[in-house]
Amino acid sequence: MRGGGLLVAGTTSDAGKSVVTAGICRWLVRQGIKVAPFKGQNMSLNSFVTREGAEIGRAQAMQAQAARVEPSALMNPVLLKPGSDRSSQVVLMGKPVGEMSARGYHGGRQQTLFEPVMACLEELRGTYDAVICEGAGSPAEINLRRTDIVNMGIARAAKLPVVVVGDIDRGGVFAQFFGTTALLAPEDQSLVAGYLVNKFRGDVTLLEPGLDMLHGLTGRRTFGVLPYAHGLGIDEEDGLRVSLRGTVRESVVAPPVGADVLRVAVCAVPLMSNFTDVDALTAEPGVIVRFVDRPEELADADLVVVPGTRGTVKALAWLRERGLADALVRRAAEGRPVLGICGGFQALGERIEDEVESKAGVVDGLGLLPVRVRFGVEKTLARPVGEALGEQVEGYEIHHGVADVRGGEPFLDGCRVGSVWGTHWHGSLESDGFRRAFLREVAAAAGRRFVPAPDTSFGALREEQLDRLGDLIEEHADTDALLRLIEQGAPEGLPFVPPGAP
Fold this sequence. Notes:
This protein is of the alpha/beta class. It has two domains: about 5-235 and about 465-490, P-loop containing nucleotide triphosphate hydrolases (Rossmann fold), CATH 3.40.50.300; about 255-455, Rossmann fold, CATH 3.40.50. The strands form seven sheets. Strands 13-16-14-17-19-28-27-26 form an eight-stranded mixed beta sheet. A six-stranded parallel beta sheet has the order 2-9-1-10-11-12, with helices on both faces. Strand 26 and strand 27 form a beta hairpin. This is Cobyric acid synthase.
């Protein structure tokens, strides 16, 4: 097989397209099939830097890991990074090419990107046995179909069969499957081979009559019913609007090794980006991570993280309006640990000069670190390697702000003053030895009898999670039928479903 393909579409955003795509990639590679993921256009504030210095969505980097291949800009040629509800930075082949309003993008620019998107897909299909493509949102966004470069637009151009994923845990999945199909043009419907039910709880035999009725209404089969899987911990894609009140990420590995647990509070700043940085903390037994937006929620935190953001100046204003800025200043004065990552690091500094991102000019930071930041037009995209706390560290950088560090102890190209740390490096906590050393310092400063587990491997845990996704596909989907779709395309003679048909 060479150049086979499949598009995993969804009835809605967050239906499970990313994890299903990753699961199919992991299942295929375990069968000895050389496979790559692909998403023509992604909208996300959670991104990653490839080894060649290209910025792509973290979901595609995760899918590449599932496929056991190196991530590449070919796998996500267009990345949109929202800066507000109405505008985004456009990243093409891993490099930013400018800011654009949603109207301007969908009104013309998007159409010019169709050819480079298709060229990337065809290059992957010429290199790999199979390419598993992920759609975006829903293929039935009829207002956007004319300029579509991620759903049925590429499916029709590349003659890809389509499987539609629906989240049954939300309710209404049968209406979603039928409505999605019925809203498509006949040429698009001819590529929709069937459906995958995601996040099912309970006795599947109770669902089967509905699946039979859906087949009767649409002429399309269901390729599997995937059970609800707890604790998957897979990278999330959408960072524009994150409502995280009450969200707690706890270690699912084991009880704490020491006598105490360690509590981490993450400030849920506006346009939060790469909040996946804290996932490595939850790999440690006895670490609890909460996303917070009120100063009183910092009271019992042993560590507060100010994460990355697409809007540093906006995040600073938010911290001040919420009273979190004053709470962070008090923490620092009391010697209680604070970690700023990327935009969070910039916010902890003395001053920001920004004529690029917010165009706000000179803005005072929180003054917790001796750092001044100037935003430049050029974006730093890098994969640095270094040492901190006596341990080797790897990370990645994605930022327009250039930091002028004027004091403190060196810390991953940033600095440390007392119990306040700041760095532009994302992903540093995934380095196991460094993470344990850092948590020991935090525990000592917080007065906790917390001991990091000596053998926790974040990389190994991530591999286990990806294998779980592969197992879900292998055990609960009709893999023979999926493989036929990938090799042969959609079946001939699939019926047209007119809107409102029964």
